[in-house]
Amino acid sequence: MLKEVAATRYITPLREGGSLPGLVEGDDLGTYVMKFTGAGQGRKTLVAEVVCGELARALGLRVPRLVTVGLDPVLGLGEPDPEVQELLKASGGTNLGMEFLSGALGFDPLAFAVDPREAGRIVWFDALVGNVDRSWRNPNLLMWHGELWLIDHGATMIWQHNWPGAQGSAARPYDASDHALKRFAPDVAAAVADLAPRVTAGLLAEVTARVPDVWLADEPGFETPDDLRRAYAEPLLARAADIHERIQGIK
Ligand SMILES: Nc1ncnc2c1ncn2[C@@H]1O[C@H](COP(=O)(O)OP(=O)(O)O)[C@@H](O)[C@H]1O
Ligand SMILES: [Mg+2]
User: Where do the domains of the chain lie?
Assistant: First the structure.
């Protein structure tokens, strides 16, 4: 399970993204980028953040620490912005928090250099989870203390939006032609050799176990949250074996 904190103060919205994440203070005095269950994209985005974020971390990629954030909608009452007020009102209960990397810079492929091996690991990981949100226009990568950190894994595993067709959808190639790290000659072959064998059923069980039950309950076609956890694990296990053969748009 992820650590649980309670939101004690809503600080400010982060306007860059589409989902209106906000900065909140937790009762552990941490500062978190909070993603709301009441946001338009809904709880599947949060499930994707946990599954992919924890998987990336287990594979040695840098991802800010994830927590669940309990929110009392009363916190929204004093908000002047009606859009924020609505979001907080609709998000009582369990939300997602990501440790705020204070002073981090948005990654700019023209301003920073990335080692081909690290680029290869990230491209392969994005192919594994089908991440469509790592383009040079919108890299969702942060530079913090001279190192690259991965954020925003909400737009991954598109197959989770249509479980009956998941197998076919998960077999599709990954288009890396717009990938933020394409220009750094990503060494995908080295990444596959190192990372693919580590994506085991056991690891995926551990990673999916960290998703809170409340985000997995009542999914049509699934009896229990654990059934749904297995459905998340299956396509990832299958893709780990051969998705590198279907990465398009890079040499
Ligand atoms: N952990 C973090 N530390 C610092 N800044 C962050 C963090 N997470 C997100 N941000 C900032 O907030 C923006 C929006 O967050 P993101 O997770 O990309 O949400 P969205 O789904 O709205 O794109 C990011 O582009 C980044 O500038
Ligand atoms: Mg983003």
Answer: 3-99, 105-248
